[in-house]
Amino acid sequence: MTVTEQPAAETTSTTGPVIDTDVHEMIGDINFLDFVDEPWKGRLHPDNWMGISIPYSWPTTGGLARPDAIPDNGERAGSDYNLMREQHLDAFDIRFAILTGLLYPSEFKVQPDFAAGIAKAYNDWVAHEWLAKDPRFLGSVHIAAQEPEVAAAEIDRIGSHPQMVQVMLPVISHDTFGRKYYHPIYEAAVRNDLAVAFHQGATIETAVGLPPFYIEWHTGISQAWQSQLISLVIGGVFEKFPDLRVAMVESSWTWLPHLMWRFDHNFRSLRREVPWVKRLPSEYIRDQVKFTTQPMEIVENPDHLYQMFEMVGNDEFLMFSSDYPHWDFDSPTRSLPPSFPADLRRKILFDNAVKFYKLQDRL
Amino acid sequence: MTVTEQPAAETTSTTGPVIDTDVHEMIGDINFLDFVDEPWKGRLHPDNWMGISIPYSWPTTGGLARPDAIPDNGERAGSDYNLMREQHLDAFDIRFAILTGLLYPSEFKVQPDFAAGIAKAYNDWVAHEWLAKDPRFLGSVHIAAQEPEVAAAEIDRIGSHPQMVQVMLPVISHDTFGRKYYHPIYEAAVRNDLAVAFHQGATIETAVGLPPFYIEWHTGISQAWQSQLISLVIGGVFEKFPDLRVAMVESSWTWLPHLMWRFDHNFRSLRREVPWVKRLPSEYIRDQVKFTTQPMEIVENPDHLYQMFEMVGNDEFLMFSSDYPHWDFDSPTRSLPPSFPADLRRKILFDNAVKFYKLQDRL
Q1: Which residues of chain B have a CB within 8 Å of the CB of A311?
Q2: Which residues of A touch B223 (CB under 8 A)?
Q3: Is A84's pLDDT higher than 80?
Q4: Which phi and psi angles does A164 have, rounded to 5°?
Q5: 8 Å CB contact between B208 and A224
Q6: pLDDT for B171-191, tens place per residue?
Q7: Which of helix, strand or coil describes residue A327?
Q8: Dist CA B297 CA B253 (whole Å)
Q9: Structure pTM?
Q10: Which strands, in side-by-side order, build the sheet including A164-171?
């Protein structure tokens, strides 16, 4: 089927309602410190402890940021609610924006109790400084996954906040999240009716580690989401938690047909290694995993992109994301091919996220 | 376009002529030692030094081997020329079989001069024990890439053997082959009119290193070919050596549309980091890189596989390979969907390899 056989959206400048599944609120000034308990508060020094950062220098024009998203006060892009509202939420018809942060305690390789302390502080800061300011914001529960029982307790503590919709895990390369060790986190997510989202962390690597250039790294890192997805299936996470909803955020997704085919093919040959996995890997993925759009690749022939949907096997697996305020931001009006059917556009921009995040009662 | 709109091959049990681009000759008994120079010969002990091996236990029925390919003498599958001839070369209409070995000195992480000594011995052993026995065999020049100048000299030494068609590099995870350090190897390959083939090494890892289970690793390792391909483009190898021909062997290939889209998309944003790369990454890949079929994924709807060819943009990038005698062997009669057009089948099974390996004069 070609997209030209379908009724196209009338224009691309209006989108209808949008849910943005990846908006990064950032810590700007040090009022974050007000939310940090001792002894961690006394050990944080803004000039010294900077969080985790990507090891590459930036070949972009504004570093990690979209240059026009840097506030006048010079603080980090994404740290100013008013600018975000004006430039993003109100500029488009964004009904909900899911805040995904970027300081992921689960990827701290040292001091797990410090990581847990930061996670708790971050959740309280987000609730107070962001969720309380705008009912369109929905939040992610940050945890220190390296201490799964502590993480589960944090999910239970803050997960009932009415605007919290998911637990955040970073895509990392030094461990695999399908391991049994991490299962209490998924159990807690299901218990609190929260999704689990995987978003790129700063420590993410490729199959060759950290290659010499940023462009190599940035082109290759979708591999790590693929490996974490493989791990969730093989670790039996979907089999054990059939109500678990997983979102792969900023993973890109056109690798999905390849992965599902290869994974099923291998499963048919090698399944005796993992007898607790009962169904074809692609079935778990289709039933329990969603993906977000950004970074949406430019494909010369939009029919090819449309065929990818048919290969995945349904049109409900993809949800719009902008990655505001980062350099590779995708606009709601420009990221989907104009020739895509209006019905598919609406599903990607709105309906699929309503269903996945169970937002029907909030509309 | 669907495959059913095309004239289909009449039967699947006859293939016409075949070139198999991935056949593993293996060292069986210790006559290999006759080819090893001192001091290395004296330091090889068959009971101790076993080469490099994959760290996982095998959930397959015959380990690495297709069980029926293990010779009666109990030596390694692939070590017996007569069995290989009977079971594979003569059983199908195989006109040429490209020997790819499996002992790759380029992935030895220690003792580079030992690696170079083994490479030289291996090349002499292959020429004497395999190439001399059957004119259908074509060979790969093994090198120790960690010593690029020594490797280039070895390519010059043995590369003029009339049956040598390519230089072999293993797909590894601890270094990237696009780095300038390795360019003398590509220069030597071009100078000797040899292709360069990348085949899975035993030290290959994924974006999460070595995940707990073999099925996770085996599903994820195509990532490392992708990273090495990214590295060749960004390292300027194709720009610097426009006559270089590269084969990605056992990489699988249905990830290619995704990679080309994502890579081009990133190149448009980030190319100022790598000004020596002049063209879109996908253009270098289309012009200079071929892929082999095995492991060919089973795709429920063959139209989807056919669409992948259209996404890649031509039908000359893929060459048949069996991976004989390994457990995941693909048969020439069964690996391509029966509904594929006869013309496309012939290109994959024969014509594309004739062109890539410049075999016209040998037919």
Answers
A1: 304, 307
A2: 206-207, 220, 223, 226-227
A3: yes
A4: -80, 130
A5: yes
A6: 999 999 999 999 999 999 999
A7: coil
A8: 10
A9: 0.95
A10: A18-23, A94-99, A137-142, A164-171, A195-200, A246-249, A289-292, A318-319
